[in-house]
């Protein structure tokens, strides 16, 4: 991707989209946002950018083609993740809000002659490739959706070599970062757990970690150097949950004891929670019957060296924090 290209960032007011916009601007590219609402005034980096107000979930391919006319590239930095519950069946929810929406965007980009689309994906697709023995797609609607998102987006784009659009996917692990005016989602899930009480309990698994800045650099790197069908796992550092909690404790100036909890002790309670959700018509992207042995008690460490060599994002950011 040469300097001065026109890029539309869908979801530019979120953490990953905001950082992507900042990197694009730093490298001399012209940016337009697509969002449901105008950016809040706290996001000063976005204040003077043109904004297209649209709902990507309901926008059809011909409408996307109109919105993307004249653009060279697009970054899709939106969509639901695995942390929330949903009314009704999870598969139907993710088909509407993630898989179908992405496919329609890419179809519209191809119709408009957009050269490249980068999708913000999940490292659960990396994990599914690494651990076929866990059969993650059979167990978890969110993993099924992320795998379908990549496959259908690649097919919809077709690749520039075939007269279509190149589509690349970033497979993103735990992300740490913040943007003005928004409370980081890790505050409740991690920081508040460490802050309150004398003991912090965490499962005995682990995860790869990146910063939001690294994701932004990787997204722009994919536009500059990625190939159609590229699936790029990101990882700056691998931490057990114990190590992660210990770092948070140190940053907060707390002396709380961090205790590892074996998965077998927690799994029955998580399954019971899942049954309660089912009784109220709710579902989750990660099946409570399998989430502990498949994910929370696993050390999901992925290799980010290959993607870093191609995309050129800065290493070592998380290690310095």
UniProtKB/TrEMBL annotation:
NAD(P)-binding domain span: 11-148
One Pfam family cited in the UniProt record for this chain: NAD_binding_10
Domain of life: Bacteria
InterPro entries associated with the record: NAD(P)-bd_dom, NAD(P)-bd_dom_sf, NAD(P)-dependent_oxidoreduct
PANTHER family per record: NAD(P)-BINDING DOMAIN-CONTAINING PROTEIN-RELATED, PROTEIN YEEZ
Name this protein carries in UniProt: NAD(P)-binding domain-containing protein
